[in-house]
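Project standup — Tuesday

K.O.: blocked on the structure for the chain from last sprint. Re-posting the sequence here as requested.
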Amino acid sequence: MSQSRSRPLPNDQDASGRMLGCEEQEAVLAALASGTLTSTKGSFVKQFEEAFAQQLGVAHAFACTSGTAAVHVALAALNFNPGGEVVTTSITDMGALTPMLALGLIPVFADVDPHTLNVTADRIRSAVSPRTCAILVTHLFGDPCEMEPILDLAEELNLPVIEDSCQAFGARYQDRLVGTFGRVGCFSLQQGKHITTGEGGIVVTDDAQLARRLFLHINKAWGYGDANPDHYFLALNYRMNELTGAVALAQLGKLKRSVEQRMERAQQLHQALADVPGLGLPMPLPGHHHSYWRYCLDVDEQEIPGGTNALADWLRDRGIACAPRYIQKPAFCCEVFQKQRTFGESRYPFTLAHADAVDYAEEKFVGTYEALNRVLVLPWNECLSAEDVEYIADAIQAGVKHLREES
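H.V.: unblocked you, prediction finished:
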């Protein structure tokens, strides 16, 4: 029998879990009243880009249509030849991978640390080959990767680093915001992110030459503002519109509060669950400041009978919409990789890959499978109250006790 409360927990898929209000409404009305909804002529997207760059402490920021678009633009701006390999993580959203294939690049997966679920320098090194052209790291769930050794490796191998910071607004490593370490940082404004426009993205860099190419790749390579503009190379239209830019600008003003709320509630849950046997908590490593896009439990099946699935069933029955495994399988197990379904029946760009690059043998990804078997992702957003977190904590404690007593 369900034990859920009469009032559901805040949900970031609707207004209950999102800080959307009069500021966004007024901004959208102002954009509509202007009659200018394209960012090539309007002001809201430009204001958002300038404010985001200032807040992040970077020289250049360009808005686009999604986090996927941000990754696509970043890779395209670096202008790699087809067949180049991009070393990345095995636990990530497909939006960080399909742009590689669309550009004729080969995603090469590195294993992850089974406790943080992030890639590390050592694991990246094991996936590098003479064909490697870039490293793309994902700061999963808002927990920063260990960037110092990754950057040292990248410098040693003369490889650019791209940061997928889509889940990590406000996260810091060694007191520096993520997204500012690599050649390019990519962010998402999708529905469930720290701030949202439903869909949207932004890319950042300190490199002026690269900034020019990022801008062009968002604008069909048309040289807006040039003396004699032309379409200089192959590129798509990834421009953000003014309505989205208006919401983004209003949301940006709430980012600091959103991150602080998530971190404060995470600390509350840390304290409540600190002594629960069989649970590992997402405690940041020294020098890391986790911004908690999600709160993830590490469930030890030896201590908690039934593991993540049993505990998830208990929590769902009490109105806590958690997700065991985060993604049901490593990214390389999806059909696009297993069956190489890309352009017609060509299998391109997999036809350019060497055997090791597309070897997805399970023994190469021990950390990945261990991590997915143990992780339980809890719903998390800036609108959770202390009472909400207390309810979640009580349900977890009761669930663990029940499962241990029933075994």
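K.O.: great, moving the ticket to review. The chain has two domains: 15-254, 255-327+368-406. Residues 386-406 form the longest helix (21 residues).
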